[in-house]
Amino acid sequence: QRLESDLRVALEKEQLRVVFQPSVDASSEAVTGFEALVRWDHPEHGPISPVQFIPLAEEIGLINEIGEWVLRTACEEAVKWPSSVNVAVNLSPVQFKAHALPSIVRAVLSDTGLSAKRLELEITEGVFLNNDEHVHEMIGSLKAIGLKLALDDFGTGYSSLSYLQRVPFDKIKIDRSFVQGASDPESRNASLIRAMVGLASDLKMQTTAEGVETQDELTLVRNLGCSLVQGYIFGKPMPAEDALALASEGA
Ligand code: G
Ligand code: G
Ligand code: MN
Ligand code: NA
């Protein structure tokens, strides 16, 4: 297919870019970090969503290369920010199968000069689908580098919670499907968020409420004890220059 070869060209010809979405402390509203999100500006078709091209990259064996490029680009930006501001990078489950991942991450950190504790890797429950030992070894190797691990899209995957107890996540990110439209503390979504926050706090993990767009949603997730908030209310994914300006504001 055309799009396949276009994606290979995109990586070479710098049609990919990384945008950054702020994450703020739920009580102080200070910016604590940014999530790096990849974008593809196709020369003919215009912007193509990562929802479309990440699965394609996984299929055609290009995800490791794209993932490493995103990681490097994100870390290069993050070293410019105040040291209290972290960067989060999404990892595809396919990248987890690559034995070289920990050494790639170490090399990127050393090349860019970013301290490991300022890097957070976001993985999804998809990583645990084939519940093999390799995944847990990989998580151990990544944690040994000193970086943080977040469980992304929490609540949307398959229902076993056993991996939460087995895996030393630093943070769980509550999927926006629970947050959006939620304002009533008696609602079903509020109960679910409350349960997730309780579970995370028992396990000494932070929680991010994702997809917060309105003041009502913000008030609710704050009252339910989410530690961090991400969503359009505090900022859409933005170019690196804007992220740098926003990161530097509080410093
Ligand atoms: O930014 P946006 O809402 O368009 O992202 C859509 C989806 O693509 C999200 O699930 C997001 O996690 C994923 N995504 C965005 N950037 C990356 C990336 O660099 N790597 C991976 N694996 N997924 C990404
Ligand atoms: O799966 P993941 O959580 O990585 O997805 C991140 C995606 O969510 C980004 O592509 C971003 O564009 C999108 N996103 C972030 N904040 C909001 C929000 O407040 N509302 C909506 N609808 N999407 C959001
Ligand atoms: Mn994410
Ligand atoms: Na998410």
From TrEMBL:
Species this protein is from: Sphingomonas limnosediminicola
Record-given protein name: EAL domain-containing protein
Coiled coil feature spans: none
Domain of life of the organism encoding this protein: Bacteria
UniProt domain EAL: residue ranges: 1-251
